[in-house]
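Record now logged for everyone:
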Amino acid sequence: MHIDYLIVGQGISGSLLSYYLLQAGANVLVIDECDPASASRVASGVINPVTGRRVVTTWMIDELLPFAINAYDEIGRELGREIAAETSMINFHTSEQMQSSWYNRIAEGSEYISNINDVDAYSKHFHVSYGAGLTFPCLQVDLNLLLQGWRQRLIDKGCLLEECFDVDKIQISNGGIVYNDVTAEKLIFCNGVNGFDNNYFRKLPFTLNKGEALIIEIEGLPPSAIYKHGISLVPIGDNRFWAGSSFDWAYDHPHPTDAFRADVENALRRWLKLPYKVLEHKAAIRPGSVERRPFVGLHPAFPSIGIMNGMGTKGCSLAPYFAHEFAGLLTSGKKINPEADIARFSKLLRS
């Protein structure tokens, strides 16, 4: 079999890159074993335009958010399902300091946040100590629908090989690569944490952290917004909410922990007035980068091999934009944003 592009991984990066390459008329094969504990399959799917205790706008969000809205709308139309929707986030301030930071950011002119004057409207469901603010627009992506829907589309097109990829079987030939009985012009690694230590990209400054979340059932809590008070409650249908997440930089294993569940349940009892039931506990390792910028592009020493990885917690916002840019580089020679292009690590990768 000869193809243009062999993509390893069908998380959000591999799905979107294959989508744009197929749109461009390329021949694509995706290899993926469908790990249910991958970061893409455990994540909440939320794009939040502001972040952190200082309530700052996230990197490139003015470009990333409208692009993501359009991209998920296009893919949803192709799949015949709505896979993303604009929503708002109700931010319950956790302290006077956080409340003050919010007010200061509004005074400076942040376009994504505003105050909520009628916090009594939420007192039926939550304990409200320091008021609340509104973030809008946010975007909530149904990653389950996206990944399963696009996987089926790849199967229908004969573009998916469901197996574990063996990096040791790669052979670099003149002008391309050989993998088992497949030859390709380019091989692109989009395999998340599994791409952390392959021989081609192990020198990139990856940083890994572990996230956990509970799937809980809460009857009577309106699913009209995302609620945040340290932890986030993200509505996912049928009175269910995704509750998380954590950032564990010194984890011992990739599995759910009793300590996380205890912490979240204690936080819920202090914040939430409604009863809840824990249905599921999930965990995954996220691949990020030390400088919090993705790794996108072709290897400077092995130009037939590329990568799209290092999205951290921002995969839903970063992947559409940079998958489109990467597809443009591969099919038309267009440049990638230099802050994301792995060309910035050329000396490191050549050494």
Summary: The longest strand covers residues 277-289. Residues 50 and 58 are 6 Å apart (CA to CA).
